[in-house]
Amino acid sequence: MAPPTFAVSEEKNRWLRDKMAELGVSEADLEETFVRSSGAGGQHVNKTATCVQIRHRPTGIEVKCMKDRSQSVNRFLARREILERIERLNKGESPRDVRVEKLRKQKARRKRRATTKYDPEKDNQQ
Protein backbone atom coordinates (compact mmCIF):
# COMPACT_ATOMS: atom_id res chain seq x y z
CA MET A 1 0.00 0.00 0.00
CA ALA A 2 1.40 3.39 -1.02
CA PRO A 3 1.71 6.03 1.69
CA PRO A 4 -0.88 8.79 1.45
CA THR A 5 -0.04 12.22 0.10
CA PHE A 6 -0.98 15.25 2.16
CA ALA A 7 -1.92 18.85 1.40
CA VAL A 8 1.68 20.03 1.70
CA SER A 9 4.37 20.49 -0.94
CA GLU A 10 5.61 17.49 -2.89
CA GLU A 11 9.04 18.06 -1.35
CA LYS A 12 7.61 17.63 2.17
CA ASN A 13 5.67 14.53 1.12
CA ARG A 14 8.88 13.07 -0.34
CA TRP A 15 10.82 13.93 2.84
CA LEU A 16 8.16 12.17 4.94
CA ARG A 17 8.30 9.00 2.80
CA ASP A 18 12.12 8.97 2.91
CA LYS A 19 12.23 9.54 6.68
CA MET A 20 9.68 6.76 7.29
CA ALA A 21 11.76 4.39 5.16
CA GLU A 22 14.96 5.45 6.95
CA LEU A 23 13.49 4.76 10.40
CA GLY A 24 11.68 1.60 9.26
CA VAL A 25 8.20 2.93 10.02
CA SER A 26 5.40 1.72 7.77
CA GLU A 27 1.84 2.97 7.45
CA ALA A 28 0.66 -0.39 8.85
CA ASP A 29 2.48 0.43 12.12
CA LEU A 30 0.41 3.59 12.58
CA GLU A 31 -3.05 3.60 14.11
CA GLU A 32 -4.83 6.82 13.15
CA THR A 33 -8.01 8.28 14.63
CA PHE A 34 -9.76 11.58 14.03
CA VAL A 35 -11.26 13.67 16.79
CA ARG A 36 -13.27 16.84 16.75
CA SER A 37 -11.06 19.79 17.53
CA SER A 38 -11.64 21.93 20.59
CA GLY A 39 -11.52 25.67 21.06
CA ALA A 40 -13.05 28.63 19.30
CA GLY A 41 -14.91 28.11 16.05
CA GLY A 42 -18.47 27.44 17.16
CA GLN A 43 -20.65 25.28 14.99
CA HIS A 44 -17.91 24.60 12.41
CA VAL A 45 -15.63 23.02 15.04
CA ASN A 46 -18.46 20.79 16.23
CA LYS A 47 -19.01 19.40 12.72
CA THR A 48 -15.50 18.69 11.45
CA ALA A 49 -12.93 16.24 12.76
CA THR A 50 -9.65 18.02 12.01
CA CYS A 51 -7.74 16.81 15.07
CA VAL A 52 -5.55 13.80 14.28
CA GLN A 53 -4.39 11.25 16.84
CA ILE A 54 -1.72 8.76 15.76
CA ARG A 55 -0.32 5.84 17.72
CA HIS A 56 2.82 3.94 16.68
CA ARG A 57 1.96 0.36 17.65
CA PRO A 58 5.49 -1.08 18.10
CA THR A 59 6.70 1.68 20.46
CA GLY A 60 3.37 2.85 21.91
CA ILE A 61 4.16 6.52 21.14
CA GLU A 62 1.03 8.64 20.75
CA VAL A 63 0.74 12.05 19.11
CA LYS A 64 -2.26 14.35 18.96
CA CYS A 65 -2.13 17.22 16.47
CA MET A 66 -4.61 20.04 15.93
CA LYS A 67 -2.32 22.87 14.85
CA ASP A 68 -4.01 23.59 11.52
CA ARG A 69 -7.61 23.78 10.34
CA SER A 70 -6.89 21.22 7.63
CA GLN A 71 -7.09 17.55 8.55
CA SER A 72 -4.60 16.66 5.83
CA VAL A 73 -1.98 19.10 7.13
CA ASN A 74 -2.55 17.83 10.68
CA ARG A 75 -2.01 14.25 9.47
CA PHE A 76 1.35 15.30 8.00
CA LEU A 77 2.36 17.23 11.15
CA ALA A 78 1.41 14.31 13.42
CA ARG A 79 3.49 11.88 11.36
CA ARG A 80 6.44 14.29 11.42
CA GLU A 81 6.17 14.56 15.23
CA ILE A 82 5.99 10.78 15.63
CA LEU A 83 9.08 10.34 13.44
CA GLU A 84 10.99 12.90 15.54
CA ARG A 85 10.07 11.05 18.73
CA ILE A 86 11.05 7.67 17.27
CA GLU A 87 14.36 9.14 16.13
CA ARG A 88 15.03 10.49 19.64
CA LEU A 89 14.14 7.10 21.09
CA ASN A 90 16.58 5.41 18.70
CA LYS A 91 19.34 7.83 19.73
CA GLY A 92 18.84 6.78 23.33
CA GLU A 93 17.40 10.05 24.64
CA SER A 94 14.80 9.52 27.32
CA PRO A 95 11.76 11.80 27.60
CA ARG A 96 13.33 13.21 30.76
CA ASP A 97 16.51 14.16 28.86
CA VAL A 98 14.45 15.96 26.25
CA ARG A 99 12.51 17.87 28.92
CA VAL A 100 15.70 18.85 30.78
CA GLU A 101 17.32 20.06 27.55
CA LYS A 102 14.23 22.11 26.69
CA LEU A 103 14.28 23.77 30.13
CA ARG A 104 18.00 24.48 29.86
CA LYS A 105 17.53 26.20 26.50
CA GLN A 106 14.55 28.15 27.83
CA LYS A 107 16.55 29.45 30.83
CA ALA A 108 19.45 30.46 28.58
CA ARG A 109 17.05 32.31 26.25
CA ARG A 110 15.47 34.17 29.17
CA LYS A 111 18.88 35.12 30.51
CA ARG A 112 19.97 36.47 27.11
CA ARG A 113 16.78 38.52 26.81
CA ALA A 114 17.16 39.92 30.31
CA THR A 115 20.75 41.01 29.74
CA THR A 116 19.95 42.72 26.43
CA LYS A 117 16.76 44.31 27.75
CA TYR A 118 18.29 45.78 30.92
CA ASP A 119 21.74 46.83 29.79
CA PRO A 120 22.98 49.40 32.37
CA GLU A 121 25.41 50.96 29.88
CA LYS A 122 22.56 51.90 27.54
CA ASP A 123 20.62 53.46 30.42
CA ASN A 124 23.58 55.69 31.34
CA GLN A 125 23.98 56.99 27.80
CA GLN A 126 20.48 58.48 27.64
From TrEMBL:
Pfam families, per database record: RF-1
Region (Disordered): 89-126
Keyword Transit peptide belongs to the record: yes
InterPro entries in the cross-refs: Mito_Transl_Release_Factor, Pep_chain_release_fac_I, Pep_chain_release_fac_I_sf
Basic residues composition bias: residue spans: 104-115
Statement: the UniProt record of this protein carries the keyword Transit peptide: yes
Gene Ontology MF terms: hydrolase activity; translation release factor activity
Keywords, comma-separated and alphabetical: Hydrolase, Transit peptide
Biased amino acid composition, Basic and acidic residues: 89-103, 116-126
Domain Prokaryotic-type class I peptide chain release factors as annotated: residue spans: 23-117
Family listed: Belongs to the prokaryotic/mitochondrial release factor family.
Protein name stated in the entry: Peptidyl-tRNA hydrolase-related protein
Provenance organism: Geobacter sulfurreducens (strain ATCC 51573 / DSM 12127 / PCA)
